[in-house]
Specification:
By secondary structure, the protein is an alpha+beta fold. It is about 30% helix and about 30% strand. It has three helices and nine strands. The strands form two sheets. A five-stranded mixed β-sheet has the order 4-6-2-1-9, with no helix packed on it. A hairpin with a 7-residue loop joins strand 1 and strand 2. It starts with a helix and ends in an 8-residue tail after the last strand.
């Protein structure tokens, strides 16, 4: 009788151990599957985000009769399929060189250098949603195949720079842009583009 009870107790313990091991194995398998699913979803999300990268057509032309002092920049969303509009677009004029430092013997500080827009054109500060320095405009909504015009004007020539040299130096330089694009439900896209300025045939460089 005692032996039978002992056997029953041992069997019960074995069953409990096997049950615990099975439960643990199932939990581990579930965790592994969850991690794999999460990684797969992340990879798919990145693929979809890449496939929906906005395609922007950017053009820039000097305004007729402005002698090159003003230009019009247009931005148009042309693709891809599956992206019919952008909820928010912000445009920033980039410098010709990403990071400038004071050169040997220079009297300029880094703060003074960063305050200068190094390039041919800036955004017209008089436009709505444009900062006072003419560097950034937006945000604005951009439906597909609707051109968005922006007014540009010559960058301000630093007091220490010869006016003629500054203008001639940047005469053939493109307008360098950083475009931040947002669409609800997606991570933002940051595009770095260049727009070559189409000259007005009657303009002259000073």
């Amino acid at each position: 009788m005692a032996l039978a009870a002992l056997i029953v107790a041992i069997v019960a313990v074995l069953i409990a151990l096997l049950s615990a091991a099975y439960t643990r194995r199932e939990a581990i398998a579930s965790e592994v599957q969850a991690v794999a699913s999460k990684e797969s979803a992340a990879i798919e999300g990145k693929r979809m985000h890449s496939d929906l990268t906005p395609v922007l057509a950017v053009t820039c032309s000097e305004q007729e009769g402005s002698n090159g002092q003003k230009a019009e920049l247009t931005v148009e969303l042309t693709g891809p399929n599956g992206l019919d509009e952008l909820d928010e677009v912000t445009i920033r004029i980039r410098d010709d060189i990403p990071v400038r430092k004071p050169g040997p013997g220079s009297d300029l500080t880094e703060k003074q250098i960063s305050a200068i827009l190094w390039g041919p054109y800036r955004l017209n500060p008089g436009m709505q949603d444009t900062d006072s320095g003419g560097r950034t405009h937006g945000p604005f909504k951009l439906p597909k195949h609707e051109r968005y015009p922006l007014q540009l004007e010559w960058t301000l020539v630093p007091s220490w720079a010869p006016r003629g040299y500054w203008r001639s130096h940047y005469a053939d330089h493109p307008v360098r842009l950083e475009v931040n694009c947002r669409r609800t439900g997606h991570e933002p896209w940051i595009l770095r583009l260049e727009a070559q300025v189409k000259p007005d045939p009657g303009s002259q460089v000073f």
